[in-house]
From TrEMBL:
Localisation: Nucleus
Organism for this UniProt entry: Eutrema salsugineum
Main location: nucleus
Gene3D superfamilies: Homeodomain-like (1.10.10.60)
GO term, biological process aspect, one: response to absence of light
Residue ranges of every copy of the Myb-like domain listed in the record: 6-58, 59-109
SMART domains, sorted: SANT
Keyword terms of this UniProt record: DNA-binding, Nucleus, Repeat, Transcription, Transcription regulation
Molecular function GO labels: DNA-binding transcription factor activity; sequence-specific DNA binding
Protein name: Uncharacterized protein
Lineage: Eukaryota, Viridiplantae, Streptophyta, Embryophyta, Tracheophyta
Length: 275
DNA sequence: AATGGCCCCAACCGCCGTTTC
DNA sequence: AGAAACGGCGGTTGGGGCCAT
């Protein structure tokens, strides 16, 4: 019986009329009970095949077109954190499927990873990522200033140290990714140039207004998140001498004036951020 | 023009955890 | 409670397109 059923099932690329029929029945019955949907629709496809076609191709919420600069960076960074957790990474990239990300990774990054250049990126430490997220958030919020010399993280890294790491990583990242992966880094580079010139002229105070701020959904979410947790007190911390911050209990992290619980690891942080 | 190598991506496979009956 | 069905996930495959030779 099952063998007979198998024989009648179509395989391989989907035809246009199959797609149309599938869309019609998913709209009608919803995204569930794929086996029933497959048989009710009259499609000679397995439920699994129908589900896959919908999830990876027909779903109207899917993004079309090439990966953006930012999506590439997110894939790269989250893969460094989580490994081949494609569905998990996909959840941080609205409109992209695990299959798409997996394919993208395999064709664009895998060879590079297998060569010697990857190791240093896997060491993105949390303080750097947090500082970076805060920095982007600060830009997005167009805050009046970003006082590098007032920052300290829970490991005792000063703002200057984080800033230096940020710049080094950005420079290395920019150079290698542009060369190796053909990324368009113009926005990032212009930001960086601006940062450096501002830093020189303002003694460590960066004017957020000066930057060409991107308005991506991710950065907006970071910004929203920061808005949620920011308080008047934390704003006051911006101007607080970091020596007093460092004397505080180690359970708190003060990066760029926002407080985090040390127990909250980066995964939790980013889940909250992008979920 | 023919061919081979490579890239890209849709689709499939097998496994496993969850849900349903 | 347990078997079957279902759904999700990561790994793999195969075919079309492009490009260099």
């Amino acid at each position: 019986m099952d063998c007979k059923k198998e024989e009648t099932l179509r395989r391989g690329p989907w035809l246009e009329e199959e797609d149309e029929r599938l869309v019609k029945f998913v709209t009608l019955l919803g995204e569930r009970r794929w086996d029933s949907l497959a048989s009710v629709s009259g499609l000679k496809r397995s439920g699994k095949s129908c589900r896959l076609r919908w999830m990876n191709y027909l779903n109207p919420s899917l993004k079309r077109g090439p990966m953006s600069q930012e999506e590439k960076m997110i894939i790269f960074e989250l893969h460094a954190l989580w490994g081949n957790k494609w569905s998990k990474i996909a959840r941080r990239l609205p409109g992209r499927t695990d299959n798409e990300i997996k394919n993208y990774w395999r064709t664009h990054f895998k060879k590079k990873v297998e060569s010697q250049n990857y190791g240093r990126y896997t060491n993105f430490n949390r303080s750097f990522i947090l500082a970076y997220a805060n920095f982007i958030a600060a830009l997005n919020k167009k805050m009046m200033c970003f006082a590098v010399d007032k920052i300290i993280d829970w490991r005792g890294n000063t703002g200057e140290e984080l800033w230096r790491k940020y710049k080094e990583t950005e420079i290395t990242w920019t150079r290698t990714t542009t060369q190796e992966h053909g990324f368009d880094e113009t926005v990032k580079e212009s930001k960086q140039r601006q940062m450096e010139s501002d830093k020189e002229t303002d003694g460590g105070i960066c004017e957020g207004e000066s930057f060409g701020v991107m308005n991506s959904p991710y950065e907006n979410r970071i910004s929203d998140w920061i808005s949620e947790i920011s308080t008047d007190q934390s704003d006051a911390n911006l101007l607080e001498d970091h020596s007093s911050s460092s004397s505080e209990s180690n359970t708190n992290i003060n990066v760029g004036s926002w407080w985090f619980q040390e127990t909250k690891d980066f995964e939790e942080f980013s889940c909250y951020l992008w979920s």
